[in-house]
Amino acid sequence: QSALTQPPSVSGSPGQSVTISCTGTSSDVGIYNRVSWYQQSPGTAPKLLIYDVSDRPSGVPDRFSGSKSGNTASLTISGLQAEDEADYYCSSYSSSSTLVVFGGGTRLTVL
Amino acid sequence: EVQLLESGGGLVQPGGSLRLSCAASRFTFSSYAMTWVRQAPGKGLEWVSAISGSGGSTFNADSVKGRFTISRDNSKNTLYLQMNNLRVEDTAVYYCARDSGGWPGDRFEFWGQGTLVTVSS
């Protein structure tokens, strides 16, 4: 069982927006802003999409945005494109013995 | 562009050992913490071990404590993961990843392509 909870799957049509939630605890997401999101296409390594809750690395489209409220972080993808179909993982720094915790991942299907 | 190239994966019997390597290039290796993340077949990502840029501080997941040792050789720009007493549940693709600064626990900006470790009799 993963430390952070994500929905197993979400879906949306091209052009629509989807939001993926990531629920942690007061030991990780709730007290640290070191929340990141990664995109992973089949057979490839994860790619950093969002860091520090809402910052984007250079090259990541502004269709991808992040936010946080309490113990829950969220990734919103607007203007869905077919190429966005992938698995998405959240992570957070943690005060527990595990330095970094990941979510279980969410598979995004573009209908 | 930063490059990370893992090697050393393979098939090993339960109770056996394996050492993974991650050769880094195109950045000042000693300035960055490094992390190993694994992914079991069809499963999600799991943080395994991390090491500070200097190599003086290491961190391990509870699931590998006492069995896995992370280390680095800054003169060779190489990260290692010594895995002992391997279990079937250690079967996974192991990725090395570069942290954003000299202390681990932040974002993973760059990832290697991964190396597969299979523990089976």
Describe, in plain words, how this protein is organized in 3D:
The complex is a heterodimer of chains A (111) and B (121). In chain A, 0% of the residues lie in helices and 43% in strands. Chain A has 111 residues and is mainly β. In chain A, the strands form 2 sheets. In chain A, strands 1, 3, 4, 7, 8 and 9 form a 6-stranded mixed beta sheet that branches. Chain A has a 3-stranded antiparallel beta sheet with strand order 2-6-5, with no helix packed on it. In chain A, a hairpin with a 6-residue loop joins strand 3 (35-40) and strand 4. With 121 residues, chain B is an all-beta fold. Chain B has strands at 3-7, 10-12, 18-25, 34-39, 45-51, 58-60, 68-73, 78-83, 92-99, 108-111, 115-119. In chain B, a hairpin with a 6-residue loop joins strand 5 and strand 6. The mean pLDDT of chain B is 97. Chain A binds chain B through residues 2, 34, 36, 38, 40, 45-48, 51-52, 57, 89, 91, 93, 97-105, and chain B through 35, 37, 44-47, 50, 59, 61-62, 95, 100, 104-109, 111-114.
Entry keywords:
heterodimer; A: 111 residues; mainly beta; 6-stranded mixed beta sheet; 3-stranded antiparallel beta sheet; 9 strands; B: 121 residues; 7-stranded mixed beta sheet; 4-stranded antiparallel beta sheet; globular
Which structural class do the helices and strands of chain B define? mainly beta
Q: What is the radius of gyration of chain B?
A: 13 Å
* Portion in beta strands of chain A: 35-45%
Give me the number of helical elements of chain A. 0
Please identify the structural class of chain A as seen in this structure. mainly beta
Uncertain residue ranges of chain B: none
The sequence of SSEs of chain A as H and E is EEEEEEEEE
What Rg of chain A do the Cα atoms give? 13 Å
Question: Biggest sheet of chain B, open or closed, and with what strands and sense?
Answer: 7 strands, mixed
Q: In one word, what is the shape of chain B?
A: globular
Count every helix of chain B, treating DSSP H or I runs of 4 or more residues as helices. 0
N-C termini distance of chain B? 40 Å
